[in-house]
Amino acid sequence: MSPMPDRMSDHWWWRPGVRPGRRLLVWHILVDDQQDVHSIVRECQDKLAPLDGLDLIPAEWLHMTTQIIGFGDEIPQTEIDAMIEAAGKRLAELPPITVQLGRLLFHPEVVMLGIDPPRALDPVRAAVRDAVAETVTVHQLDDWPEWTPHLSVAYSHDDGPAAPVIEALAERPSPRPLVVRDVQLVAQLRTGRLYHWERLATVPLGG
Questions:
Q1: 47-57 per-position pLDDT tens digit
Q2: 52, 119, 158, 185: which sits with the fewest CB atoms below 10 Å from its CB?
Q3: What is the top-level taxon of the source organism (predicted)?
Q4: Which residues have a Cβ under 8 Å from the Cβ of 69 and sit 6 or more positions away?
């Protein structure tokens, strides 16, 4: 993940196995009721809105991808149920975690907000990954071993210089708190230039 890419590129290429209508099971941290988070995202998006080539992520679809599991048509319901139960037991042992959201991260395909401390949410991801490894036969854990926690603000759909994007956010936003009280299992779809999902389970931290 480059802090300052030279160019932007199209995020919306089709990843292996992904196709219209195929559901991808993912653990997300969602931020529905966190007004501080929505405020900092709006601040960034207002600065990016005049630029061409970017898709600003609607508030209802803001998310922090925590772990991709695999495709829903390859995972039986019994394994999904067992995974939710296993995640619940592990996450119940963790207290809610508050981090500061506001560190800008730039990737050729995405503009993101990172967290401080940067590794504060690693126990949440470890709990989820252990639950997946214990219960799911066909999964994508090996394909995504590293994690930089981030909330995406905008996706690029064009190929062009990154300088205007970086310059638009030259004045860094003031950090805002993000409180992680639960993790959501979703069945995610891509429609056009948008990720959206059906929520399958909400698993709280701290029981």
A1: 999 999 999 99
A2: 52
A3: Bacteria
A4: 24, 25, 26, 27, 75, 83, 132, 136, 139, 140
Tally of domains within the chain: 1
At residue 24, what is the residue type? L
Name the pTM for this structure. 0.95
Q: Kindly state whether residue 2 falls inside one of the protein's structural domains.
A: no
| 91 in a structural domain | yes
CB 152 within 8 A of CB 30: no
Q: Which domain holds residue 195?
A: 7-204
Residue 1 domain-assigned (yes or no):
no
Give me 139's structure tokens. 């999964």
The letter for the amino acid at 204 is P
What is the domain-level CATH number for residue 169? 3.90.1140.10
- Which spans in 14-67 are helix H? 35-48
In a domain, 38, yes or no: yes
